[in-house]
Specification:
Length: 240
């Protein structure tokens, strides 16, 4: 399937993995919409690089998300692709974790799935077409020390993906997830060297992943009409 002129919304795409996904989709001819919450300068830079446009909206705020989706529909008439990429980490052992760290990660990484996807799905159902890609994590599958909040949220993303895929499967909409491992940009690059060394010992391919490798997996799912409810693991074998 050709991607040219498809309308693609990527949340949290002012930096890191989201930025690279936006750039790779633009290369394929997509009309890219760069969502950001605070990083306006970087978002505008990505918009220029992709010949796209920016929309400011906090994915934790349901009303801002509704307004963003409404504005996109008013301008383009549809949203073909949604890539739920926005996410944060606030790592602490569960013993030392406060309610604030728990709530912020769950809100940004999991509750945002409802806030953004709900109004998008309503529009996709009208068109009997759409593709949704949710960015999860290997942490949501095997759990990492100091990441009870992050692991819980990303596991929730996988459950959400599978359940929604069942609900919309007969309506021209596919829903899948990509689960990155340790990636050399964005959240992954913030891992301390000593922790990274331990990770590398357990990664069969003995290296961190590239953001482009995540983007290529997203493109595979966007160009395939017979895959839904699946999780594509891009982690160098870490989850074996």
């Amino acid at each position: 399937m050709k991607l040219k002129d498809k309308i693609a919304l990527i949340t949290g795409s002012s930096r890191g993995i989201g930025k690279v996904i936006a750039m790779e989709l633009a290369k394929k001819g997509c009309k890219v919409i760069v969502n950001y919450s605070k990083d306006k300068d970087n978002a505008e830079e990505v918009s220029k690089l992709t010949n796209g446009m920016t929309f400011k909206a906090d994915v934790c705020n349901v009303e801002e998300c509704k307004e963003m989706i409404g504005s996109i529909i008013s301008k383009y008439g549809k949203i073909d692709f949604l890539i739920n990429n926005a996410g944060i980490s606030q790592d602490k052992t569960f013993k030392n974790m406060g309610k604030e760290e728990w709530d912020k990660v769950i809100d940004t990484n999991l509750n945002s799935m409802f806030n953004v996807t709900k109004p998008v799905v309503e529009e996709m159902l009208k068109n009997n077409y759409g593709k949704i890609i949710n960015i999860s994590s290997v942490s949501g599958q095997i759990g990492f020390f100091g990441q009870t909040n992050y692991s819980a949220a990303k596991a929730g993303v996988i459950g959400f993906t599978k359940a929604l895929a069942r609900e919309v499967s007969g309506k021209g909409i596919t829903v899948n997830a990509v689960a990155p491992g340790v990636i050399d940009t964005g959240l992954g690059s913030a891992i301390p060297e000593d922790v990274l060394s331990k990770f590398l010992e357990n990664i069969p391919l003995k290296r961190v992943g590239k953001a482009e490798e995540i983007a290529h997996s997203v493109i595979f799912l966007l160009t395939n009409d017979y895959v839904t409810g699946q999780v594509i693991n891009v982690n160098g074998g870490l989850s074996i």
